[in-house]
Design a protein that fits this description.
Helix 1 runs antiparallel to helix 2, helix 2 packs across helix 5 and helix 3 packs antiparallel against helix 4. This protein has 193 residues and is mostly helical. It has five helices and no strands. The protein has one domain: Up-down Bundle (Four Helix Bundle (Hemerythrin (Met), subunit A)), CATH 1.20.120.1630.
Length: 193
């Protein structure tokens, strides 16, 4: 029961932050959800598939929690809980740092700033890193093959979104400033020499 409560708390805080940010921005007239909007071809496919995957993961997570699936020893489940908490923390910090430049998907019509401070000094994609860490944490807490599959599929779609959509957009929008930033900070975690 303890892991179920921890898992539900992780998901509640994680998705609560996501939706509260969207609501907050909507009140300011900002359309946060840009996934698939105004896109065509491969880029649209990536974004729409990523969105579907991100809807499937919490369903698999909640089902796994209700069934309390657990193939791993208690120590691994505790590590999973800690990884999930780190993921939530990473995500919240990234959303707060982005302020009103945060979007789900890219928008070529919205004017945003290139954020390189705070947590973005050690990760170019801390929100995606947060998602991945939450997924890993929940997998370690409630392992089953279905959960592993949908979580890995979503993580792959995030990566494709970053590489094929976001990085291209950022280079077009911010030019040399983004290229300089990209040379200093790793895609997911760490600084380059």
């Amino acid at each position: 029961m303890g892991f179920q409560i921890a898992g539900i708390a992780i998901l509640f805080v994680f998705y609560g932050c996501y939706f509260l940010k969207m609501i907050s921005q909507r009140r300011k007239g900002i359309k946060t959800d840009q996934i698939g909007k105004g896109k065509v071809g491969f880029v649209k496919w990536i974004e729409v598939t990523m969105k579907i995957a991100t809807y499937l993961v919490p369903v698999a997570e909640v089902v796994s929690m209700i069934l309390n699936t657990n193939s791993f020893p208690k120590s691994v489940r505790i590590i999973g809980t800690l990884v999930g908490i780190i993921g939530v923390t990473c995500f919240i910090i990234s959303v707060l740092t982005m302020q009103d430049s945060w979007r789900a998907g890219v928008s070529k019509t919205d004017k945003t700033e290139l954020v390189t401070g705070g947590i973005y000094k050690i990760s170019r994609n801390p929100a995606f890193l947060g998602f991945d860490l939450v997924y890993i944490g929940i997998i370690l807490m409630f392992f089953n093959w279905g959960l592993l599959f949908v979580s890995c599929f979503a993580a792959i779609m995030f990566h494709l979104q970053i590489v094929n959509v976001e990085e291209v957009f950022l280079q077009e929008a911010f030019g040399d400033a983004y290229l300089s930033y990209r040379k200093k900070v790793c895609r997911y975690l760490g600084r380059k020499r």
